[in-house]
Design a protein that fits this description.
6-stranded antiparallel β-sheet, alpha+beta, Transferase(Phosphotransferase), domain 1, 4-stranded antiparallel β-sheet, disordered N terminus, Phosphorylase Kinase, domain 1
């Protein structure tokens, strides 16, 4: 049986040309898009001589900057210097054209970080061969008085013939006038040298330091100085010792020497290549099977016929490719015979293009995206109804045939189809004090001056009938406003509550049938802001296959603590803490295997033991953020894809199994995406809040199609499948929008 597309992993996508993409550029006919980002677009293209290339272009607004044109020229020069043995062969470039362009070889293979994600740390012989080749590649640059300045795993392609260095966007000539300001650290913090982190001169020894970090990553699966915020990384790069854990014993002393803080004590590239002393065998013989399979898949991807050009949006003049193609030509302009020729060239190592290394260049380095097409009209609200006193995390809950929301002095039910108020569900006014199993709504009873026990009541459907007591726990203080229902699963309700005896807080479980306590485990009290009443209690929990997953902020809210407990006894199966600036998750994004979190990176933790399955985004340019801000927003997972806001750029979609990027939203100039509200994932569109309203992003074109103006405080975490709509809540109303 053939594997499913998800199991096979991503192929190199040939995205359709946009309606306003040029037909020809620099003597090349454009066939398809390979990717687009803040700096420009990369196309699959064919020259008049029949050569298939990757054609890198620059957005018009950036091309108007003379400094950037200088950088672009240096990038082309550096790529030529390194040569086609160690880099992508340059076939042509024109940095002075109205639209600057660079045509290069199409390299078949994954980025090094993708290879490690697919196969784990590479065998020592492969790491040595990789390092020796890369040291020689850097030696070619240094012999021409050029330094790379941004060597990292995503800038190295792993091919069957050996590694290739790509992306020379910030390379520069030694002694040349700086293209960045004095004291500015250009590069990627996780793989910078100490001198580069300090904004000082970056010499060839700095490239050696970065190469050692890359080899450490290849050998051990982690960087030399961990992850986290850029400021923390820069500090560790300058002052901390590298983490050599997991590095083969014979390699560790050499990498430690290369990572010396003093540039003078590091070996030269020639000495490093000699010390690595790889075997003389074929490079591909030592590659793990998953990497070889990935290379084969990428080679096969060039057999795909280029997709038809996208039509113009409604209201814009249509543009179509030139007519009159030869017989057998596809809609994108490439004949089937040529497709066969291209695929054959892949096997022979002839002029084929980059499969995986586009993103390092496509990600904007603080530059603006070209103006996207104007946004269309948003869908009209299906209904809206008044509601007041909304707080973060108070999104409406679907319970049976009602939509429940807390507002003002109580909880109220609405009709999901029309928004008509249906019921008053009682005086439970705080969202963290109600929970549902999808059929029954439970709440914590508001206690007066008499009975102080913690009481869980069943809130009658339709607001009719008495509130039935399901659980009564005298050992806990029912008058404490920040007591919380965490979740309900079958006959068990899980809570976080304060004891009467000593004021200690506990996570506990009780049986809804017997009303008795099952177990309790001590926990930290709510954050100071919650105790002051300005924010809701932010403990989050849900039952997963591995047990009860609990998430709560610690250390004054700048970290998250996750733990999984045995739902029958409360025994802790594992716990992990990680830095997490910004709002804690208002809903935990999980599937059968992982819990997904957005912090400095987008990451997946295994539900079985809390270990990191993958981490995405370290070193990626995510826009204009302050050092203390979270880089990745609260995520959503649907159908094997994790969606999250990436910095100030918009939605990024990542494969839930592998952590590899699938696509990224084309940024809008005026958007300031909200990273503290999880996106909502439909089948055709993903919905995300920004500073102006809710955007609908098309999953095929990766562009925002419309924006519904709203100052929403919360958005339903999933589309309501029964009526195909999502719910938005601001401080005065709840409204419904149709989803696709």
């Amino acid at each position: 049986m053939l594997p499913t597309p998800a199991a096979r992993g991503p192929l190199v996508p040939l995205a359709p040309l946009a309606h306003d993409d040029p037909h020809h550029l620099g003597g090349h006919r454009l066939l398809a898009r390979l990717g687009s980002g803040g700096m420009g677009t990369v196309y699959l293209a064919r020259s008049t001589a029949g050569r298939t290339v990757a054609l890198k272009t620059v957005h018009a607004r950036i091309a108007a900057d003379a400094t950037f044109r200088t950088r672009f020229r240096l990038e082309a020069d550096a790529a030529r210097v390194i040569g086609d043995r160690h880099g992508a062969r340059v076939f042509g470039a024109d940095p002075l054209a109205e639209t600057p362009w660079l045509a290069t070889e199409y390299v078949i293979g994954p980025q090094l970080d993708e290879a490690v994600a697919a196969a784990g740390p590479l065998p020592e012989p492969v790491v040595r061969a990789l390092g020796a080749d890369l040291a020689r590649a850097l030696g070619r640059l240094h012999a021409s008085d050029v330094v790379h300045r941004d060597l990292k795993p995503s800038n190295i392609m792993v091919t069957a013939a050996g590694p290739k260095v790509i992306d020379f966007g910030i390379a520069r000539a030694l002694g040349a006038e700086r293209l960045t300001g004095v004291g500015v650290a250009a590069g990627t913090p996780a793989f910078m040298s100490p001198e580069q982190a300090a904004g000082l001169e970056h010499t060839p020894a700095g490239d050696v330091f970065a190469l050692a970090g890359v080899l450490l990553f290849a050998a051990a699966g982690h960087g030399p100085f961990g992850g986290g915020q850029a400021a923390d990384l820069l500090y560790r790069v300058r002052y901390a010792e590298p983490d050599l854990g997991g590095v083969p014993q014979a390699l560790a002393p050499l990498l430690a020497r290369c990572l010396d803080k003093d540039p003078a004590r590091r070996p030269t590239t020639a000495e490093l290549a000699e010390l690595l002393a790889p075997g003389t065998g074929v490079f591909s013989d030592g590659l793990p099977r998953p990497v070889l399979a990935d290379i084969a898949r990428r080679a096969a991807a060039v057999w795909q016929e280029p997709p038809p050009r996208l039509p113009a949006p409604a209201g814009e003049p249509a543009t179509v490719p030139d007519a009159g193609g030869a017989a057998g030509t596809t809609a994108g302009g490439m004949s089937r015979r040529r497709l066969l020729t291209v695929a054959g060239a892949a096997a022979g190592g002839v002029a084929l293009a980059t499969g995986g290394g586009l993103w390092a260049w496509l990600s904007a380095r603080g530059q603006e995206e070209e103006a996207p097409p104007a946004l269309g009209q948003p869908p009209a609200a299906l209904w809206e109804t008044g509601a007041v006193s909304a707080k973060p995390g108070s999104e409406p809950l679907r319970t049976g045939d009602e939509l429940i929301a807390t507002a003002g002095l109580g909880a109220f039910g609405f009709n999901p189809q029309k928004g008509k108020p249906l019921s008053d569900r009682g005086t439970v006014a705080d969202a963290w004090r109600i929970a549902t199993d999808g059929k029954v709504l439970y709440g914590l009873k508001e206690q007066g001056t008499g009975d102080k026990a913690l009481v869980v009541v069943r809130l009658p459907q339709g607001g009719r009938g008495q509130q039935d007591t399901s659980v009564r726990l005298p050992a806990f203080d029912g008058a404490e406003r920040l007591n919380q229902i965490l979740c309900v699963d079958g006959d068990t309700v899980f809570l976080c509550a304060k004891s009467v005896a000593d004021g200690q807080w506990f996570v506990l479980a009780a049986n809804l049938k017997t009303g008795g306590e099952l177990w309790r485990r001590a926990t930290a009290p709510p954050a100071e802001a919650s105790l002051a009443g300005s924010l809701p209690c932010v403990v989050r929990a849900k039952t997963v296959r591995a047990g009860l997953l609990v998430c709560r902020p610690v250390n004054r809210g700048d970290s998250l603590r996750l733990s999984v407990h045995d739902p029958a006894t409360g025994a802790e199966r594992w716990t992990v803490s990680l830095p997490a600036p910004g709002a804690p998750p208002h809903r935990l994004a999980t599937d059968e295997d992982h819990v997904y979190l957005g912090t400095a990176t987008l990451q997946a933790l295994r539900l079985t033991d809390g270990s990191t399955a993958w981490s995405f985004g370290a070193g990626r340019e995510v826009g204009d953020l302050r050092p203390a801000e979270r880089r990745y927003g609260i995520p959503t997972v649907r159908d094997g894809v994790v969606y999250a806001v990436e910095g100030t750029r918009g939605i990024v979609a990542v494969d839930a199994r592998t952590g590899k990027v699938r696509w990224a939203e084309t940024p809008l100039k005026d958007a300031r995406p909200d990273r503290d509200l999880a996106p909502v994932a439909g089948t055709e569109q993903v919905y995300s809040m920004d500073g102006t309203g809710l955007r609908g992003i098309d999953v095929r074109s990766h562009r925002a199609l419309w924006r519904y103006t709203t100052s929403a405080i919360t958005v339903s975490p999933d589309p309501d499948p029964a009526v195909k709509q999502l719910y938005i809540r601001d401080d005065k109303r709840v409204l419904a929008l149709p989803t696709r």
